[in-house]
Amino acid sequence: MKKSFLILTILIGFSVIFFNSCSKSDSSTPAPVATPPVVGGLWKTTISSLIFSINLNNDYTYSFVTNGAAYETGKYTLGDTTITFLSSTPTSAPPASCYGLHGQYSFKIDTVNARVLTPRITFALMSDSCSTRVTLIIGKWLKN
């Protein structure tokens, strides 16, 4: 009888320890942080001696800028090697033809110079019915 009582006590003790350790949460674990998109940041290119920039924000919004003024804004989505732009620029602002249109491009990021490590992104057209955006975005952009 003493042996049975001892075994029962040991089993209850292990059960309490096991279930107690399973129910505890570790409050020291940091909350997950959203990872910024790989394309995020300010990129610049020159077309016909004009400097254009695109700011790809970490909240998945973008703005194309020339001469210090945004001429197209909107949201973008990412695939592994694709980016899709959706213009939300009001129809009264140029280029009105892009308003509400999706433009999908493939992209590749590399470095220009191994010593300088200046990131460069190259966009290639997949599909876009906004001819203004197509003209501006295709090609190489340097990270600012």
Features:
single chain, 144 residues, 2 helices, 20% helix, Lipocalin, 8 strands, 8-stranded antiparallel β-barrel, alpha+beta
Secondary structure blueprint with pairings:
Layout: H1 2-23, E1 41-47, E2 50-56, E3 61-66, E4 69-78, E5 82-87, E6 102-111, E7 119-128, H2 131-137, E8 139-143
Antiparallel strand pairs: 1-2, 1-8, 2-3, 3-4, 4-5, 5-6, 6-7, 7-8
Helix content: 10-25%
Our measurement of the CA-to-CA distance between the termini, rounded to an integer number of angstroms, reads 80 Å
CATH architecture name: Beta Barrel
Please state the CA-atom Rg, rounded to the nearest Å: 27 Å
Class computed from helices, strands and strand pairing: alpha+beta
How many H/I helices?
2
Task: Specify the biggest β-sheet.
Answer: 8 strands, antiparallel, barrel
List the strand order in the largest sheet.
1-2-3-4-5-6-7-8
> What is the H/E order?
HEEEEEEEHE
Classify the beta-strand content into a percent band.
Answer: 35-45%
Give the mean pLDDT.
Answer: 77
Structurally, how many domains make up the residues? Answer: 1
CATH names the topology as Lipocalin
Class, according to the CATH hierarchy? Mainly Beta
